[in-house]
Amino acid sequence: MTDNRLTVVSLLLSFSLLCGCSSGNKTVEQPDEKTVIVGLAYSATYPELFKHAVKNAFEKKGYKVVIKQVNNGNMLNSSLARKDIDCHLSGHTAWMEFAVERDHLDLSMLITVPSSIYGLHTTTLKARNLAELKQELKRGDVVAIPNDPSNLARGLIFLEDIGLLKLKDDINKYYATDKDIAENPYGIVLKPIDSAQSARVLESVAFSLVFGTEAYNANIISSRIVREIITDERFLVGFIVRTEDLEKTWATDLIEAVRSEEFKNAVEDKRYIFNDFQRPQWYVDLWGIPNDFVN
Fold first, then answer.
1. Which of 178, 194, 227 is where one domain is finished?
2. Which of 29-43, 113-127, 157-171, 278-292 has the lowest average pLDDT?
């Protein structure tokens, strides 16, 4: 009987020691605070800006950068909310705020960057500047404009800024649609389309609002007759993060990388298209390089 009890006790002790050793040897995977996963859309614009102007300056601070790219930039906000990525460089503040309200996300803009702009392009009109355009337009001329909510509003604000229409005074212009047009003195007819199609419909419309990425891909960026001059910085693209991460060390270091001289030198390098981008006010103030664009 005593032998049996000793045997049981021995077995229990052995099991306990085995469990203890097993637990002690188990590797618990901890998040690597020096690895930052950056979300980017497949396009020629902001992935190139990140690669040439940000990545190296950020990595010099000791970070390992992992890039995750998606076909649809709208997927990046949900990826960020799920913590599949740490930040993304794809959208502007007005676009982010629309997604935050619609999808109940807790996201914030960390820092804006020089941003690609819309251009007014045409292959069916002879006009080569805004004054000539206004003279040539006829009532009923069709105008292609982006159809996603935030960029539809942005496109309408652009058309208002150059005097082709006027929006109602009592609306939130960041949510404007074609139903919010108060005055249309040139009688243009808006045709909302997918932004990706904006450069492909030029033969069938009077003019199209083509985003910089699409114009660059179509090799027509130099042929715009009117450029968007962003008067509201909520339409500048930047690094978007979860609000809870705004004060993280890596986020502060990312801001420093974007505000670095290395970043500025890449943006202003004539080999790239970034010097044609709209510069944020912080950039203008820091480096004394103005946005001297005119139409």
1. 227
2. 29-43
The reply to whether 214 and 266 lie within a common domain is no
How many structural domains compose the chain? Answer: 2
Q: Which residues face 89 on adjacent strands? A: 239
Average pLDDT over residues 63-89: 93
pTM assigned to the model: 0.84
Q: What is the CATH number of the domain that holds 85?
A: 3.40.190.10
Query: How many residues does this entry show for the chain?
Result: 295
39 close to 88: Cβ distance less than 8 angstroms = yes
Residue 20 has pLDDT above 70, yes or no: no
195 lies in some domain:
yes
Tell me, yes or no, whether 203 lies in a domain.
Answer: yes
